[in-house]
UniProtKB/TrEMBL annotation:
GO terms for biological process: DNA-templated transcription initiation. The lineage of its organism: Bacteria, Pseudomonadati, Bacteroidota, Chitinophagia, Chitinophagales. Residues 27-93 form the RNA polymerase sigma-70 region domain. This is Sigma-70 family RNA polymerase sigma factor. The chain crosses the membrane at residues 178-194. It comes from Pinibacter aurantiacus. Residues 126-176 form the RNA polymerase sigma factor 70 region 4 type domain.
């Protein structure tokens, strides 16, 4: 079956109605560079743009049943891209606020030996939470964030489809974000209370 000869509409129909991974891979091949260029133009950071694009295509697969076949493509992808970029910028602003706190005099004054111990405990907790991920999910996560492999490279390394690799990554990140938000809040709160 020559997917390269298929129109976008035909590929989208296969994705939506038959969960066709090869059709998804063809859409990825056609639009990856275009979406990356669009996202990079907004973020101006190669690593952040690559991560965001992977999230966009992962979201595209997850939302495949919501695709409106009468809607002009790649409008659907650009809509996902717009939302992901906005979400990324919001998270980055929040991260910058956190960094400002940690680099401020207030943080320096309260950066006690006790807090350093808590920080080590937090690092151990992060490693522990990663170890608790299901094996395939953990492997995909470590290949991405320890070996810096792309989704395509991860799929080749693990012998799975790009869609499956992207799904593993999304689930791993969702799980860890929830766990680590709680852990970071506890460490932050303990530091504030310890300084009073």
């Amino acid at each position: 079956m020559n997917y390269k000869a298929y129109t976008d509409e035909a590929l989208l129909r296969l994705i939506k109605e038959h969960d066709d991974h090869l059709a998804y891979s063809m859409i990825f091949e056609r639009y990856n560079a275009l979406i990356y260029s669009h996202v990079y133009n907004k973020l101006r950071n190669e690593f952040e743009a690559e991560d965001t694009v992977q999230e966009i295509f992962s979201q595209f697969w997850i939302k495949r049943n919501e695709i409106d076949l009468t809607y002009k493509f790649p409008g659907f992808l650009f809509l996902l891209a717009r939302n992901k970029v906005i979400d990324h910028v919001r998270k980055k602003k929040l991260s910058n606020i956190t960094e400002e706190f940690y680099s401020s005099n207030l943080y320096t004054k309260t950066y006690s030996t006790d807090f350093l111990i808590r920080e080590k405990q937090l690092e151990a907790l992060i490693a522990h939470e990663i170890s608790l991920l299901p094996p395939k999910m953990r492997q995909a996560f470590e290949l991405r964030y320890k070996n810096y492999l792309s989704i395509r490279q991860i799929s080749e390394e693990m012998g799975i489809s790009e869609a499956t690799a992207a799904t593993h990554m999304k689930k791993a990140l969702k799980t860890l974000r929830l766990k680590l938000k709680i852990a970071i809040f506890i460490v932050f709160l303990a530091n504030i209370l310890g300084s009073n």
